[in-house]
Specification:
2 domains; Aspartate Aminotransferase, domain 1; Ser_HO-MeTrfase; one-carbon metabolism; EC 2.1.2.1; 422 residues; alpha/beta
Length: 422
């Protein structure tokens, strides 16, 4: 049963309610290892579903374009103050609808169409909005891209510096969507200062680890920081932009009125709840457990012959090249899903296959740690993954179904927010 219960939805729209109930059970019954997903708390779920969704609030606290903001202003201010406290920043904007609009706001704040932006290439682990060709950021701006070393899978900062000196970008993005190693923000900052660029740290994947002290912070190095509020931070599907005081006005004007109208107040409230949770001692324990689980899982996968990009992980994320296993990432991911292990197929650096049928899989341990799984469970997870890949190659659906049953047996001992078997 979905928690909080949804009796009114069930009575009003039983078809949709049934799908919601099934999704709640699906999230309970599987090992959810998509690196960008997590479980939010019941408090975050409740905040996301309040009457705050009824209110329009264009503008900022004290400077709105609609009346009736007596309670909305303090809610948004609370979220802002908590973001500033958790991350130690001068300024925070909690209104962006999601991560991509937050990154677009950086372009609007600091660039004009045709200006040069530098970011990690998408196949190397970067994000679409860091200037990739199919994104508006690659179509409207002159995009130059750095990558990783073929030998190490790590960023070669000598190459980054040479590229920056040659191209003179106005903005440099550090961060991405498939980076399993610690991001060296001080080195990026040094290069950005040398070429007079704004350094934008995209910490969408690692925000919760930074808040929990399990990854170095970009604060003091980056001029502007963007992040989603879900993923490792365990908040709702939203985003934030944080910056130095110098850039506060430019950031705020880029978000509103530059890119969007009224903020989603129910999401703002849920962000505030998540940030309060992130300020608690238990959150530091969770962040440390996420990394411990990832390291243990990486070791167990390597022992079973998986080829991990960069040889392992420093954070929540693992990127594996399945070429040596004799299977593509897409059929492997689909088989793993049938085996109760949810992750995604993904390109790997220097991939010879197409993006929609790549060589790799990407997985993470944030949701497993939220659920309560620890290092002791990771060898079993690796064994199931290995067995599922083997079963996929053999087209052995019975074996996949058997693994799925074993997964359900394990996770039944680890309840999750949002679902109750009662």
């Amino acid at each position: 049963m979905h928690v909080p219960p949804i009796p009114t939805l069930t009575a009003t729209d039983p078809e949709l309610a049934g799908l919601v109930e099934q999704e709640a059970q699906r999230q309970h019954d599987k090992l959810r290892m998509i690196a960008s997903e997590n479980y939010v708390s019941t408090a975050v779920l409740e905040a996301s579903g309040t009457v705050l969704t009824n209110k329009y609030s264009e503008g900022y606290a004290g400077k709105r374009y609609y009346e009736g903001q007596q309670l909305i202003d303090p809610i948004e201010t609370l979220a802002i103050d908590r973001a500033k406290a958790v991350f130690g920043v001068d300024h925070a904007n909690v209104q962006p609808y999601s991560g991509s609009p937050a990154n677009l706001a950086v372009y609007l704040a600091f660039l004009s169409p045709g200006d040069t932006v530098m970011g990690m290439a998408l196949p190397m682990g970067g994000h679409l909005t860091h200037g990739w060709s199919v994104s508006a950021t690659g179509k409207w701006f002159n995009s130059v891209r750095y990558g990783v070393s073929r030998e190490t899978g790590l960023v070669d900062f000598d190459e980054v510096r040479d590229l920056a000196l040659k191209e003179r970008p106005k903005v440099i993005f550090a961060g991405g969507t498939a980076i399993p190693r610690t991001i060296d923000f001080p080195k990026f900052a040094e290069i950005a200062r040398e070429v007079g660029a704004v350094l934008a740290a995209d910490i969408a994947h690692i925000a919760g680890l930074i808040a929990g002290g399990a990854h170095p912070s970009p604060v003091g190095h980056a001029d502007v920081i963007t992040t989603t509020t879900h993923k490792t931070l365990r908040g709702p599907r939203g985003a934030m932009i944080m910056s130095t005081a110098e850039h506060a006005s430019a950031v705020d004007k880029a978000v509103f009125p530059g890119l969007q109208g009224g903020p989603h107040n129910h999401t703002t409230a849920a962000i505030a709840v998540a940030l309060r949770e992130a300020s608690q001692p238990a959150f530091r324990e969770y962040a440390a457990q996420v990394v411990a689980n990832a390291k243990a899982l990486a070791t167990a996968l390597i022992e079973r012959g998986f080829d991990l990009i960069s040889g392992g992980t420093d954070n929540h994320l693992i990127l594996a090249d399945l070429t040596s296993k004799g299977i593509g990432g897409k059929p492997a991911a689909q088989a793993l899903d049938r085996a109760g292990i949810e992750l995604n197929y993904n390109t790997v650096p220097f991939d010879t296959r197409k993006p929609f049928d790549p060589s790799g899989i990407r997985l993470g341990t944030a949701a497993l740690a939220t659920r309560g799984l620890t290092e002791e469970h990771m060898p079993q997870v690796a064994a199931w993954m290995d067995d599922a890949v083997t079963a996929a190659i053999k087209e052995d659906e019975a074996a996949l179904a058997h693994i799925a049953g074993e997964v359900r047996d394990l996770v039944s001992a680890f309840p999750v927010p949002g679902y109750s078997a009662a």
